[in-house]
Structure formats: structure tokens, C-alpha cells
Amino acid sequence: MKRKITLKHIARELDVSISTVSKALKNSPEISKDTREKVQAFARLYNYKPNNIAISLKNKRTRNIGVIIPDIVHHFFTTVFRGIEHYANDRGYNVIVCVSDESFDKEVVNMELLANGSIDGFIMALSAETQQKQDFNHLKELGEQGIPLVLFDRVTSEVACDKVIIDDQAAAQMATQRLIDSGKKRIALFTTESFLNVSAKREAGYRRALEKSGLGVDDNLIIRLPHQFEEETLSAAFFESQEFDAVLCVNEIFAIRAMRIAQELQRDIPGEISFIGFTDGLLSKYANPGLTAIAQHGEEMGRVAAELLIDRVEEEDDLEQELPPYRTCIIPVSLIERESTQLAPSKN
Amino acid sequence: MKRKITLKHIARELDVSISTVSKALKNSPEISKDTREKVQAFARLYNYKPNNIAISLKNKRTRNIGVIIPDIVHHFFTTVFRGIEHYANDRGYNVIVCVSDESFDKEVVNMELLANGSIDGFIMALSAETQQKQDFNHLKELGEQGIPLVLFDRVTSEVACDKVIIDDQAAAQMATQRLIDSGKKRIALFTTESFLNVSAKREAGYRRALEKSGLGVDDNLIIRLPHQFEEETLSAAFFESQEFDAVLCVNEIFAIRAMRIAQELQRDIPGEISFIGFTDGLLSKYANPGLTAIAQHGEEMGRVAAELLIDRVEEEDDLEQELPPYRTCIIPVSLIERESTQLAPSKN
DNA sequence: TTGTAGGCGTTATCAG
DNA sequence: CTGATAACGCCTACAA
């Protein structure tokens, strides 16, 4: 097996110095046409490719970006990831992924590992545990070390950095309003425990819509389900004990499961009960009936996050140039209407 | 912002040589207790961490593994990825992902990029296009360069390397047999165009079961759908034109969509028609009725792939030791029974 | 036109 | 016990 060839090999074979080879390969006018051609031919023949690691060491730039997400088997994150990956590749960057599994410790460990030279910057969504603990020292340290960071979706105001989010509150408010506009009076909310930033904001939007419309909030219509808990009795009981004609869910799985319970109880969808879920994933699309969903446009989110990050990484090269202030980009959501609702036409 | 600290900085501050610092940090007995403690204290204070890149350059080992998959927004690949990531992390490796988007060119470009020193080995599933073209030179080259490769799921016999697969043929045969055992006589197959290796094998298993049982194969009951094509008329027409009492689908989406068409035609599931799909993902689990599915245990597959790869990467360190022959691991599948079938109890 | 030397950060060898 | 030196592969300012 022919091991990777280096400048040194070429130099030795051709009986020139390493720097001559290096320059010749870059087509430097310093080198005679003759030598250039000789070197280039040889390099092509042996399929020479510069060693990324050596270049990284020299340039102190790896062209790798680190992505840390709570869970990879999750449609939304996966979609964002695709956006990141595509954009990064287009700009010549590779992506190193670590999964925090919603654990604070894994998040910290992974970041420290990558921060020691493996990457030029991070894109991440906070783990549930990190949000719960409200401990962001590992993120603040990045700033001190001059490693750019972009947070997306699960962000915090405690850390100064670029951010990409959707306006969760406005989205929930819009969805709730659309349900109200379609004549629904008693709208339930299926949400998670509230330490998740996004859930809290979605709840706020839901409340706001109800208040503004004059329907008012009935706290009995809000059910808080454990985050990853697979059990139906809680929600089934909720269906028995409360009266409602529409449901807003903070995620897709809650919506699918709620819809299924309704079907088992022989409720007509969307006539008796309408459903809207956050996250427009495969489940919404292929549900029967199709689930009306708030699309978060994860791919776009990833694209923007990667752009913010790479721009900043590359700005840092222009030494001591004033860096632009941190930005927060808000990705617009859209409501994908399917059979689980019968909405009046939107006003805009 | 305090930039990353290096051995050199420490050496200068403490007025000792770089090599002394290096040794002291490794607790080398060569160094006096005094110096060791002084150095270690200083290092801790300034949170010194060795630079990964420099170490990679020196060791010619990056502790990164490259994963190339056709699509990240795909439950099965995502599951395999999780298995890889977890196992790799446990052994101190990071994962660099590239997505081929089912394109041959992207596969080649990504691999070449990473192969220049960024990774110690590859884990990949072939893109559709690569399988179609049957061009595997980029993979063969890895062998020549001494870069270990593990193929999973979408493999080829053209390349000598470690492989991890499920026995697609046996799985399809088993599923078909179970349908037969439950009394079904006319079993349809929904598959893709046949250049996908796995589809071909699944079809073979389906045929084998029908032949062995004496039912025989009716080619009219096999429908070939475009791989990523989102249209229902083809399959709807199939439902109209053919009589069948069970359906085996080579993937989850086909199954969900077929099931939905059946529901729209008011067919009783599983009484009139039973359904089984490959890939036990979210859609199968949350479908209504739940879809009986062949679980490929992607996470286990990823774990095994990562183990094969890392073992081989690390074996290569033990210079000139005879490398073990290439292995092909077969991950057993299992049938997850849900409401879309009414199977007789399995014989084993 | 070509080559030398130094450096990126680390480690290993060997000399002091 | 400590330090100088060379090496990993590449680049570049400066010398020849």
C-alpha cells in the first residue's frame, strides 16, 4: 500500500528542495516554468494532496465547525443539521458533530474536547439539562478563548453570541389565533415541563392569543407532559376530564399521540376537535388525518447559523478589525395546513 | 480575551524548557517533584489543554472518524449514526459527518477532502448513484492508502473491507412467511427501482418465501415506485387493478402511504389487508393503526461498525502485525408486531 | 531561480 | 534532573 505522499517525498525524488516544491505546486512565478511543470506532473502522478492537519497547525484554522445538538434522532435537529452541513460544505468547511443527549456533562466534555484546536467555532442548541441548571460557564469560556459560537433554537440570554431562533411566542400566538378565528372556543395546550425555554415561550404566545381575543385562559386546559415520557394515561385522562374543541401541541409527538387518543374516543377531527402541532416533520405529513403544523424551517435555520458562524470565523482573520456586534436572526415560521384543522383563510 | 496557552508560554513564564514542561505535565519521574508541582499548578491555573492538531500531526492519528451517509434526515441512518457516535465517543473518537445526498460526486469529493489527514478511517453507506454506477474506485483507493473503511447497510462485494449489514433477504423472507402463516394468499410487494442493493435482496427474500410455500410469485403483485417520488396515483391505481390481501414494503414511507390509500378505499386493516414495512421508525410506531415493521436495529449496527473500524485503526498501530481478515457482521432483525397485521405466533 | 531557516505545538531521544 | 534537538508536514520571509 502506497502511503500518503508529502512534499518531502517529491523533493527527494526530484532532487529539489521542499520549498521549491511547495512554491511550484502553487504556481509561484518565482519558480522556473520547467521546474513547475516537472513538479506538478510528478505530484499529479502520485496524486499528491496537502495534509490538512499540517495546514491547520500552520494556519491555526481547521475549516471544521463543531455542531452540538441534544439528539440526532430528532427530525427538527436533523433538518437544521442538514442546513448547516450544506452551507458549510459550500464554503469549504467540514462538520464535526457531537450529541449531548440532553446531558450537561456530555455537552461540557464534548465542547472541551473540540475546543482544543479541532474546530474553528461552534453551532449548538442547549441540552435540556443545561437549560435547567442555567449553568453557561462552558459557553462563556469560549468567548474568552476567542472561539465563535452560534446558538440556535434553544438559546439563552445569558451568553453573548450570535443566535438563530424562531419567534416561538409569535408562532404559538398565530396558531392559537387561527384556531380562534375558525370558531374554536376552548383550546387546550399540550406542553412539556416549563424549564425548556421554547415551551415557555410557546405557552406565552398561547396565553396572549386567548387573552387578546377575550376568551381568556383556563389553566385546566393546559397539560404538562414529561419530556420523553411514553405514556398515554395522563393525556387520556385529560381527554376524559376536560372539554375542549382544539389542541395546540408544543411538539409533533404530543400532537400525534393526542390525535390518536381522540380518534380512539371517536371524536371527529377536525369537526369536534382540531389539532395543530409544532415542528412540521414526517409524522405530521404522514399522519392520518394529516396534521396541521407550524413549520420551523430547520434547514434555513441551519443555513443562517452556519453563515453567521463562518462569517465571524473568517472576520477574525482580518486582525484587529472591529468585529460586528452579535446578531439574533429570527427565522419566520409558517403554518402548514392539513386535515386536522379547518381554518378560515388567513388574514394576511 | 486570553488566547489558548501553549507549552511554550508555560515554559517562558516558569523559566524552564519546553521539554521540561511537557514531561512535568505527564508526571514523568524524570522531573523533580518540585518542578512537576509548579508546572502542574500553573497549567491548571491557566487551564492548559494540549492542542489536538499538533498531537494529530505528531502521531499521525486524529482520533476522528469520518461518516458518510446518503441522507441525514432519515430515521434509519440517523439511528445508525447515533450508535456510531456513542461508541466512538466512548473510545475517545470524534465523528465528522458528510452527507452525500445520494450523489456519487459529493461522495467522492467529501471522501477525498477527509482522507487528507482529517480522519483515521471511514464508516459509510453507499449513495444511490454510486450503487447505480457501480464505480468504487474512490473506495478502493482508500485501501491503497491504508485508510480503514467499514461499509454498512448499502454495501458492495466489489470492495474488500469490513461490512455490517442485515440479512435483507432472510428478513424479507421471514416477514413474507409470517404473512403466509397468518393465512394470506396474495401478498403484494412495494419496492423501489432495483439498483438499490437492499431492495433487490428484499425482493429475493419475498420471492423465496412465496415459492417455498407453494403460493408462487405473481409479478403483477410487485410494484416498483420511484425512490424519492412523492406521488400516489401509481400506487392508487395498483390498489384498483390488483387483488391482494397483504403488503410487504421495502421501506417505511411506502408502507405508510400504501396503508393510507387502503384506508381511503375503506379496506379493513388488518382483516382485509395486512401491512408490514421495513425500517421500524417513528412513522411505524405512531401510525394509526400501528405498522408492523422489520426493525433493523440501526443503533446496534452503528455500534458494531464503529467497533470494527476503531479496532482496525488501532491495530494498525501495532506495526506490521498481521491484520485480521475482513469481516462481515450480520445484525439480526426483528419483527415488531403492531395492529397492521394479525400474525400467528412465531414458530421460534 | 532555488534553497535555507524558522515556526505552528507537541513529543521523544539523547546529551548534559 | 533538565534541556537541546529533531521530527510530524507545510508555508514563507529571506538569503544565496
From TrEMBL, chains A, B:
Q: What SUPFAM superfamilies does the database record attribute to this sequence?
A: lambda repressor-like DNA-binding domains (SSF47413), Periplasmic binding protein-like I (SSF53822)
> Would the keyword Nucleotide-binding be found if you checked this record's keyword annotation?
no
The protein's superkingdom reads Bacteria
Q: Which residues form the HTH lacI-type domain?
A: 5-59
* Sorted UniProt keywords: DNA-binding, Transcription, Transcription regulation
- Gene3D superfamilies assigned: 3.40.50.2300, lambda repressor-like DNA-binding domains
Question: Which InterPro entries does this chain map to?
Answer: HTH_LacI, Lambda_DNA-bd_dom_sf, Peripla_BP/Lac1_sug-bd_dom, Peripla_BP_I
Q: Does the keyword Transcription regulation apply?
A: yes
User: Which Pfam family is an annotated match for this chain, by its short name?
Assistant: Peripla_BP_1
MF (Gene Ontology): DNA-binding transcription factor activity; transcription cis-regulatory region binding
Instruction: Quote the protein name from its UniProt record.
Output: Transcriptional regulator, LacI family
Write the lineage as a comma-separated list.
Bacteria, Pseudomonadati, Bacteroidota, Flavobacteriia, Flavobacteriales
